[in-house]
Design brief:
3 strands; 4% strand; 14 helices; globular; mainly alpha; 3-stranded antiparallel β-sheet
Length: 323
């Protein structure tokens, strides 16, 4: 029960991203500053965490080995992930973006053929190209159905152009995030822990965030004190607290696939928390019955997907290493 509760707490703090981004957009803040300030503020906190764990020097040495790959995949995994999410906040409510974001489980599955994986069979380890997990994809279709219900309800009162501006960026982010992070995990080959990877990718994506900040300064002017403060809260809640909690929860159950699936499924609660936050603090309209059906379908599909994707093949053994 403890890992589940920690996982739910992580989802709660992750939801702050969607609520605060919506708040900043509603008060006239630019998506440019919402995106760039989060990662700029994350750096000192992550530096303290990694340095306290005495893992800073190994990280810097690892980054020197392949700087171009660090720059490229950090830009994909962080830049093309978070900037589009912030852009979408100008056209969709936070709870809807949180629901649509769950499509990443489908996007991640479709990326499987682009990676080589080591499969431990009864006859020994084999290196093979990843295969699309059709069993879990079937469960993903339930999530997709829920997202369609959410988007159909939202699309009734807006133009096609506004709908696409709120949906396409989230779709792009759903592919960029798993692609960038998986490429980095493959590059590091277990030599870095999750905290080091997050800090390394934040540092490597820094050129993008600085260029985006310069563009924002020239086109939008400096961020307001309110947006700066809220961006700091996003960096703390989502970038630091939620990440630490989620890693802790998965670490507790890393050797139990069924419990790990349950912890992963807790992240679908982001939709509920984001919705509650916007209703309480931003006075958004209460969702219609159709939207509620869509939300519950997304949450249920996430749970079923996690269960299906963590049922091991009887002919293979999944080896889980220590973090």
């Amino acid at each position: 029960m403890k890992p589940i509760l920690i996982g739910i707490a992580a989802a709660f703090f992750f939801a702050f991203t969607f609520v605060l981004n919506a708040s900043m957009e509603a008060t006239g803040g630019s998506w440019i500053w919402s995106a760039s300030l989060r990662y700029l503020f994350m750096i000192p906190f992550l530096l303290l965490i990694v340095a306290a764990r005495k893992n800073l020097q190994p990280l810097l040495l690892e980054m020197k080995k392949a700087p171009k790959q660090w720059l490229l995949w950090s830009f994909v995994g962080f830049g093309l992930f978070y900037a589009p999410l912030c852009f979408a906040a100008a056209y969709s409510p936070g709870w809807l973006i949180a629901g649509t974001w769950q499509i990443t489980i489908l996007s991640g599955s479709l990326l499987a053929p682009f990676f080589l994986t080591t499969v431990y069979t009864k006859n020994g380890p084999l290196l093979e190209r990843g295969k699309i997990p059709y069993r879990s994809m079937l469960m993903s279709s339930i999530v997709l159905l829920g997202i369609m219900l959410l988007q159909i309800e939202h699309a009734r009162d807006i133009s096609l152009g506004v709908f696409l501006l709120g949906f396409i960026p989230v779709l792009l982010a759903s592919f960029a995030y798993p692609l960038g992070n998986r490429k980095m995990m493959a590059l590091c080959s277990g030599r870095l822990d999750a905290y080091q990877r997050v800090l390394g990718m934040t540092l490597a994506s820094l050129p993008f965030w600085l260029l985006l900040s310069l563009y924002g300064l020239l086109t939008e002017g400096a961020p307001s004190a309110s947006q700066t403060w809220q961006s700091l809260l996003v960096a703390l809640s989502s970038g630091v607290i939620a990440t630490v909690l989620f890693f802790q929860a998965t670490d507790y159950v890393r050797n139990d696939l069924k419990k790990l699936a349950s912890v992963e499924a807790t992240q679908s609660m982001e939709v509920i928390f984001a919705l509650a936050g916007e209703i309480l603090f931003l006075s958004v309209a209460f969702p219609s019955p159709l939207s509620w059906i869509g939300i519950l379908t997304v949450v249920g599909g996430m749970i079923l997907h996690s269960i299906a994707s963590n049922c091991p093949d009887p002919n293979t053994v999944k080896v889980m290493s220590n973090p």
